[in-house]
Specification:
4-stranded antiparallel sheet, 344 residues, alpha+beta, 50% helix
């Protein structure tokens, strides 16, 4: 489990963490942490050169990945610490190598800083216009495209072989508790902890074989025989069936905020541009009058054609073309063009 989490963290955070480090390129000025000033009041978990890595850094690192936010930091502590130390070490080495003095790096940092400032300003301006009423209008609009679907709440037991599945099914049919059997026998560890319970799902959310089997059953039904999918052999008990209800406003609120942001952002940008003086010059003016015409005119000759024309001009030669009729052995008449070089 720890090895799996470490791999996930390395893959995801290597990109997220080191890219985010660009925003804190000047962290050494704080003498605290590469992750943010708030970390200074948190317990120090590692010293890397002049950089202190704190417990708050690890929490922030973990929370930067939505899928990991609900996992306690102590579960991921070793992996988070290793990644944080690696990042701090690389940043220390970069500081010693004066990488920040490289003109290309300075430009890259400036570009990133400009993007952050622009995004922060525009986000704030959009937020000023965002109201609950406007979001609710978007919510009502989204409901018009909502299509109710049949969904199922079910429990399942997953095992490797058909014989094992048949044996478990016989025990359940004779009175064995389905939930207990799922906890003891199922290879699906996540659902096994909940007695084999799967959250409500629609048919398209599961593999075809599973969907066909489960959606042919009624509420309260138990599989009459095991069925196979790519994961193994399944036994299913349907707990409930219902028509999927539309999501509530509260459930959709983050999505609605993002939708509103994207819709009004172009209008906000145009409105904000009115607050400053903007002068735009025509390209021909910038290039300097008639000279710009030569720059903008599309070339119609290839380099080879230009070279040939130049050679002709230098040699003082012209070419005359004459048509000739020829008769082959079969009596067919053809026209050929011959060229004669005439010196001037």
């Amino acid at each position: 489990m720890k090895k799996f989490l470490y791999v996930i963290l390395c893959v995801v955070l290597a990109g997220v963490g080191f890219y985010a480090g660009r925003e804190y390129a000047g962290y050494a000025e704080w003498g605290v942490s590469p992750f943010g000033k708030k970390a200074k009041d948190s317990p120090v978990v590692a010293q890397v050169g002049r950089t202190e890595v704190t417990l708050a850094d690890l929490v922030e690192l973990k929370n930067s990945i939505p899928q990991l936010r609900t996992i306690p930091v102590e579960v991921l502590y070793d992996q988070l610490l290793a990644i944080a130390v690696n990042k701090a070490a690389v940043m220390e080495l970069a500081q010693k190598a004066d990488v920040a003095d490289n003109p290309e790096i300075k430009k890259e940092i400036k570009d990133v800083k400009d993007q952050i400032l622009a995004r922060a300003y525009l986000d704030a301006e959009v937020a000023k216009t965002m109201t609950r009423e406007k979001l609710f209008e978007l919510y009502q609009e989204s409901l018009q495209s909502f299509v109710p679907e049949d969904e199922v709440l079910a429990r399942h037991i997953l095992v490797e072989t058909e014989d094992e599945a048949k044996d478990i099914l016989r025990q359940i049919q004779k009175g064995a508790d389905f939930e207990e059997m799922a906890r003891e026998k199922s290879l699906d560890e996540t659902s096994a902890e909940q007695g084999g319970l799967l959250d409500y799902f629609v048919k398209d959310m599961v593999v075809p074989e599973f969907g066909e089997a489960v959606f042919s059953m009624k509420k309260g039904d138990l599989s009459d025989k095991p069925f196979k999918t790519q994961y193994g052999w399944h036994i299913v008990k349907v707990e409930d069936r219902r028509m999927k209800a539309p999501p509530s406003f509260e459930e959709m609120e983050p999505e609605l905020e993002a939708l509103y942001h994207d819709r009004v952002l172009p209008e906000i940008i145009e409105a904000e541009k009115e607050k400053i003086k903007i002068e735009i010059k025509d390209l021909r003016t910038v290039m300097g009058g008639n000279q710009s015409e030569d720059v903008l005119v599309e070339e119609t000759e290839t380099e080879q054609e230009a070279s040939e024309n130049s050679d002709d001009a230098e040699g003082g030669e012209t070419v005359e073309e004459t048509d000739e009729l020829q008769v082959d052995e079969d009596g067919e008449v053809s026209e050929t063009v011959s060229e004669t070089v005439v010196s001037e």
